[in-house]
Amino acid sequence: MSKKILITGGTGYIGSHTAVELLQKNYEVFLVDNFSNSHSSVLQGIKKITSKEPHFTKLELTDKEAVAAYFEDHHDLDAVIHFAALKAVGESVEKPLLYYYNNIVSLLLLLENMIAYNIPYLVFSSSCTVYGEPDKLPIKETAPIKPALSPYGNTKQISEEIILDLAKVQENFSAILLRYFNPIGAHPSGFIGELPIGIPNNLVPYITQTAAGVRDVLHIFGDDYDTPDGTCIRDYIHVVDLARAHIAALERLLNNENETSCEIFNIGTGRGHSVLEIVHTFEKVNNMILPYVIDDRREGDVEKVWADTNKAQKILNWKPQFSIEDALRDAWQWEKNYRGIKS
Ligand code: WQD
Asked: How much is the pTM?
């Protein structure tokens, strides 16, 4: 009998790629999403790749009654992977209440129902944003958590604390927190990928939309940082590698291999790339020239950050398989498919 896994934010960027990996490993997959930052067409993409249809329910995770009703109907779930959250750093500064309410209330309602129906395992989508500007690179999971630079980052820190405190005292409840670095790319099939609604906040979708002519020019936010080429450095990880890290974490919990009731892992490649390196690698692998201008720095940007991934590699037996080139090629393939660009 296949294990039953709920993915919240299941039609989102990382949620949909994780759904594909779970379906291909013969799990029974249940997706919920409110489509605030995704589209129902993603479900067709998942089906095209896997020839399987996940169960889907449109659900507002901050609606107490609706969430309770959902779990009443799905009380035999084996685990939950929780992606659903608002995640635009800039928007969170403008609309702090929206972010605190959405990201924290949805987590609290989810946890309440997991406990009520004795659903024992949670994999939580956290973020390297909890580290702020690191003192030491690469960053280990033991690095100090710095005061959040945005309400978004603060909701991730608060969420981690809530889960850690619950795991300390709650019988039959264990969690794994995955601190992502920068997810990029798309499924190699080209059937699913990043689908930001409105103007992309993140670098790679802005690059692919510029390449597609949807945006006139890429604005690079600052080239006067203390880095080799002056632009910020990040640890960019292929979204399929990231999805597979969730499977590794889930199976560690399902197999009761976790050593404590709440474990934390950095999920990145362990390598940093600058903005200009990403731009030039994109141009090279996709054989094009990308128009860009250098603008002022973006408020709140961290100068350089990349992961120490030894713990995930050793304990989760997980290692990134895709290169930056793969990710930038897949990102462009997806953009072209999505917009019907032939070439
Ligand atoms: C990367 C670099 C920008 C856009 C993001 C999310 C955060 C978290 C981690 C999930 C920076 C530069 C960007 C552009 C640019 N995700 N840039 N022009 O800020 O590291 O964090 O991923 O938890 O929620 O915000 O990623 O892609 O926004 O920026 O020059 O149009 O690209 O200044 O140096 P970031 P990003």
From this structure: 0.97
